[in-house]
Amino acid sequence: MPIAVYVLGLSIFAQGTSELMLAGLLPELSADLQITIPQAGLLISAFAVGMLVGAPVLAVVTLTWSRRTALLAFLAVFVLAHVAGALTPSYPLLLITRVVGAFVYAGFWSVAAVTVMALVSADRRARAMSVVTGGLTVATIVGLPLGTVLGQQLGWRSAFWTVAGLCVLAMLGVLRTVPADRPDPATAPRLADELRVLVNARLWLAFGTTALVTATILVVFSYLAPLLTQATGLPPVAVPGVLALYGLGSFVGINCGGRFADALPFHTLFISITGLVGLSALLAISASEPVPAIAVIALLGGFGFAANPALNARVFSLAGDAPTLATATNFSAFNVGITVGPWLGGLAIDAGAGYPALGWIAVATGLAALATVLLAVLGTPVSSPGLAGRDATDRNRRAA
Questions:
Q1: Among 13, 170, 346, 380, which has the minimal tally of Cβ within 10 Å of its Cβ?
Q2: Each residue's pLDDT tens digit, 124-158
């Protein structure tokens, strides 16, 4: 892999720490800002809304930009948003900074994905994306528990300052490793071609799978800290350790998914989503028991992130030669799930259903995700590899 792929993965780690860390900071945010836990959870949804809008908008705006320039601009705004968030005593203003930060984070994801696709061969796309997305799993292993510890010991604002510092370092890495070339006008992406690709119904089915899988993960993940302390009965000091286990499971899962998604995309999706459904049901039943609950949470990270490379590779395959807007829309689909998951969980908690009910909501969204994958399989010609595209077909012919 080119070194720039790893730098982009580290950049996603820096920004992904901000995306994830609020799951471990909800109690501190609630107490400091004098808001309820579900209101604090809306900060997660606000971040998702910013990404939902930012991905397609910034993908279109930066079609003819130098990719390095775009990546650096997004990181700079992200840093400023976190400095403002760390300084504000106002919940509404903090909500706004989350939306702004997420808006440019989504743009970074979109441009980074297209940059990676240009740097590697077609048969290594899922593997390369697993490296970049692996930055997010490292954020769950290191950034999330670190942010939780900082929030518990030094206040939640210290976690925001740390993220801002990490992103400054990411800017230096991007400046050194990502090519500064502008797209050739003769071969630069055209908006008309990008929009034409979105007419494909199978692409929208893929977006639906992405949104539902993400909602299945986030409906539980968003409330892990209060679930562990209030339903499972763990002391707050134990929460970072459990979150680290979740991150470790995610790291293993995304690497396994990256190895198999290019060749066995549907198999990867079926196994990962089925695992999510079964584990969510088990969590709903055993949330009050520390040992099984902790084990299930670690496995949820693994099965959840195993689907990610296949979800990305499927969209790249279906988009063909105009992947920029389709990729951005897929990131928006991720954030539809990130928005809906915490919202559904918050509704259940406000209704008095209790934290174990989050598992049953995840079962429902997971079954819906499985249904979309089944529809995709039924709609894929027998002679087509479905997610891996023409390149996989060529490899199969050569192998035969």
A1: 380
A2: 777 888 888 888 778 877 887 888 888 888 888 99
